[in-house]
């Protein structure tokens, strides 16, 4: 008479399963690595030009970027002297919205003011 070992040979086992010391199969489960990446941030940047009035740029920095008048004036002068300047750093959606708001108000007033965003 043939004696078979007392393990279930009817199930299929693959290489991820290991027999423990009782002879039964355990599934080796690797814990998923938590997704810890922070979403990217974007600098909203104003570009200088020769035609947009300084006062208009200061108004934009106050109304769209919530700056105090003194800070808005500093940033406007930075753009005026260096060619560009950062208005703020935001997530993608907010940065995109701010850029669209600036471009829309500039267009309404027929100023050639440019505003862009860049990943920070
Ligand atoms: N250079 C403009 C002027 O002399 C002022 C200005 C500042 C324009 C910032 C655009 O993003 C700008 N009237």
Shape: elongated
Write the element-wise H/E pattern from the N-terminal end onward. Answer: EEEHHEHE
The proportion of residues forming helix, as a percent range, comes to 25-40%
How many extended strands? 5
Low-pLDDT stretches are 5-19
Supply the helix-strand structural class.
alpha+beta
- How many H/I helical runs? 3
Distance between the termini: 77 Å
Ligands bound, unique:
L-tyrosinamide
If strands are numbered along the chain, what order do they take across the biggest sheet?
A: 4-3-5
Mean pLDDT: 85
Q: What is the makeup of the main sheet?
A: 3 strands, antiparallel
Strand content: 15-25%
Backbone CA Rg: 31 Å
Structural commentary:
There is one protein chain. This protein has 120 residues and is α+β, with helices and mostly antiparallel strands. It has 3 helices and 5 strands, in the order βββααβαβ. The chain has helices spanning 54-63, 69-82, 92-108, and strands spanning 17-19, 25-27, 41-47, 84-91, 114-119. The protein has a 3-stranded antiparallel β-sheet. The longest helix has 17 residues, at 92-108. The chain is elongated and about 70 Å long. Residues 5-19 have low confidence and may be disordered. The protein binds L-tyrosinamide. The site of L-tyrosinamide (TYC) has 13 residues, from β3, α1 and α2.
Features of this protein?
120 residues; alpha+beta; three-stranded antiparallel β-sheet; two-stranded antiparallel sheet; 5 strands; 22% strand; binds L-tyrosinamide
């Amino acid at each position: 008479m043939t004696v078979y070992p007392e393990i279930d040979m009817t199930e299929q086992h693959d290489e991820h399963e290991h027999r423990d010391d009782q002879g039964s199969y355990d599934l080796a489960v690797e814990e998923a690595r938590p997704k810890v990446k922070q979403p990217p941030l974007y600098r909203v940047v104003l570009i200088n030009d020769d035609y947009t009035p300084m006062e208009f740029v200061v108004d934009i920095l106050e109304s769209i970027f919530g700056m105090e008048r003194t800070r808005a004036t500093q940033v406007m002068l930075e753009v005026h002297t260096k060619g560009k300047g950062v208005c703020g750093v935001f997530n993608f959606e907010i940065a995109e919205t701010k850029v669209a708001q600036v471009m829309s108000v500039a267009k309404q007033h027929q100023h050639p003011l440019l505003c862009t965003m860049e990943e920070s």
